[in-house]
Every structure is written in C-alpha cells, then in structure tokens.
C-alpha cells in the first residue's frame, strides 16, 4: 500500500504519529496486536480500508507450538 501511494515509511510515521520501528513491525507482520486508533490513522492517511492492510491467517499451528514451548519450559 505504501508503494501504491508512493510513500515512504518515514512519511507515514510523521503523518500518523507512530514510530518507524513500530510501523516496521506492523509492516512485516510481526505485531501481536494493533490499536484501532493506529489502524484508523494509517487507513486515513493511505486512503484505504483495514481489509486492504490486514489478512486473516489461521494460527492453530502457531498456538500448538506456543503451548508446546510453555510445557517444555515448565519442566518436571
């Protein structure tokens, strides 16, 4: 979406008031959550809908891995 709008991450950061590192986390899909106010600001600046930015992914496998990791950590 940034490329479509010919906008750099620094410009988006300035426009929405969110740091470049936080936007980078969102951009790479590594964010655990996003505030509605942040999503609203990004959509307003990019003139798009949330569906243009977000994609649903079933994370059943990820949840199983997380649970397995926690069980391994707790030990005997």
Give the helix proportion (percent range). 55-70%
The termini sit apart by 49 Å
Topology as a string of helices (H) and strands (E): HHHHH
Task: Supply the CATH class.
Answer: Mainly Alpha
Low-confidence residue ranges: 72-76
Number of strands: 0
- Largest sheet properties: none
Instruction: Note the overall shape.
Output: globular
Mean pLDDT: 83
> CATH topology, what is it called?
434 Repressor (Amino-terminal Domain)
- Specify the number of helices: 5
Quick recap of the structure?
By secondary structure, the chain is an all-alpha fold. It has helices at 9-16, 20-28, 36-46, 50-53, 60-74.
Structure description:
With 76 residues, the chain is an all-alpha fold. It has a single domain, classed as 434 Repressor (Amino-terminal Domain) (Orthogonal Bundle), CATH 1.10.260. It contains five helices and no strands. The radius of gyration is 16 Å and the shape is globular.
Topology, pairings included?
Elements: H1 9-16, H2 20-28, H3 36-46, H4 50-53, H5 60-74
Key terms:
single chain, 76 residues, mainly alpha, 434 Repressor (Amino-terminal Domain), 5 helices, 62% helix, disordered C terminus
């Amino acid at each position: 979406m940034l490329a479509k709008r010919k906008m750099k991450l620094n410009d988006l950061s300035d426009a929405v008031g969110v740091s470049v590192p936080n936007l980078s986390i969102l951009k790479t899909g590594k964010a655990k959550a996003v505030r509605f106010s942040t999503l609203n600001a990004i959509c307003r600046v990019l003139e798009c809908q949330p569906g243009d930015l977000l994609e649903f992914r079933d994370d059943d496998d990820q949840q199983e891995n997380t649970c397995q990791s926690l069980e391994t950590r707790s030990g005997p």
